[in-house]
Specification:
Layout: H1 2-7, H2 20-45, H3 52-73, H4 79-104
Helix pairs in contact: 3-4
Length: 110
Amino acid sequence: MLSQAVLGFESPLTHMIPGIPYRYAMGMAGSLMEGWTILLLWADRKPVERRDVLVITNVVILGLMASGIYAVSSGFAPLSSMAPMLIFQGILIVLFTSRYMLSRGGEGKK
């Protein structure tokens, strides 16, 4: 995403040359993805102490799911192409929520 935003290369799959609005959106999304990756790596160093990052991550995933559902309901994307991502996001929500709940039992342990 960031390479599309900064360099504006032609897409190798679609041969689309990104315009300014697309490059702006990719720059915003790419920067957020890069920052979130760094946040998750930071939380991984002390997972029990920083487990609240999982709750915040679930909020982000729910937002992505809502966007995907909107894309399907508005006719922008077919359900068949969006379903695998929605299922994967649902699995992540269950995984992160269960790990958060399990980590609460070990709060006082070192």
